[in-house]
């Protein structure tokens, strides 16, 4: 029995030794695979980094080209826009000069018309004043004539000449009617003068 146990224990020890060797072999293989995998990962990282650097370079180059194209296009558009603005400024200046000329001509015409109307009113006012002065002179002459006629009438009344008295009365009536006419004309002339003054 003991020998059988020893044999079994010996076999078990061999099995344990075999398991340990297998475990060491497996661990060694895992370590080797892990190293290979890490090396492979490092290579992939290097390739990926190199690819990223390459793509970054290409993207930066493309962006620089786009910046140059955009800058050139913007410069071209700015030039066209400035040229268009210059044309619009020139047209606007020409239009303003034209409008200014028309306005100045219109103002000159209005000034001429206004001056002509003022001259016309001044002449009419002068004519009315001349008429008024003439009427005043005629009234003064009439008053003087009336005074003389009254003196003559007094002299005639003393002599009781009825024919002469009737004639003088008729003459006095005519003078009164003419005086009324002159008074109306004087009133109308003064009214016209007041309108012209306003």
Can you tag this structure with a few keywords?
single chain; 198 residues; 2 helices
Molecular structure report:
With 198 residues, the chain is an all-alpha fold. The chain has two helices and no strands. It has helices spanning 2-159, 162-197. The longest helix is centred in the middle third of the chain and has 158 residues, at 2-159. The termini are far apart.
> What integer is the average pLDDT?
81
Principal-axis shape: rod-shaped
Helix-strand sequence = HH
- The amount of helix comes to over 70%
Radius of gyration: 68 Å
The number of strands is 0
Enumerate the spans where pLDDT stays under 50 for 5 or more consecutive residues: none
Going by helix content, strand content and strand pairing, the class is mainly alpha
Termini separation comes to 162 Å
The DSSP helix count reads 2
Largest sheet: none
Bin the strand percentage.
under 5%
């Amino acid at each position: 029995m003991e020998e059988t146990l020893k044999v079994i224990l010996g076999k078990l020890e061999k099995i344990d030794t075999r398991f340990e060797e297998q475990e060491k072999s497996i661990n060694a293989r895992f370590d080797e695979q892990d190293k290979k995998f890490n090396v492979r990962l490092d290579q992939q990282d290097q390739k990926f980094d190199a690819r990223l650097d390459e793509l970054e370079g290409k993207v930066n180059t493309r962006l620089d080209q786009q910046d140059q194209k955009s800058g050139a296009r913007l410069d071209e558009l700015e030039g066209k826009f400035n040229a268009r603005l210059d044309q619009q400024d020139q047209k606007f200046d020409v239009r303003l000069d034209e409008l200014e000329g028309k306005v100045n001509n219109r103002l000159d015409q209005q000034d001429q018309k206004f001056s002509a109307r003022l001259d016309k009113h001044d002449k009419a006012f002068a004519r009315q004043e001349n008429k008024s002065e003439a009427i005043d002179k005629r009234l003064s002459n009439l008053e003087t004539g009336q005074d003389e006629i009254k003196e003559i009438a007094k002299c005639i009344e003393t002599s009781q000449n009825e024919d002469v008295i009737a004639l003088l009365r008729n003459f006095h009536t005519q003078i009164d009617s003419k005086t009324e006419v002159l008074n109306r004309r004087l009133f109308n002339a003064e009214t016209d003068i007041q309108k012209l003054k306003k």
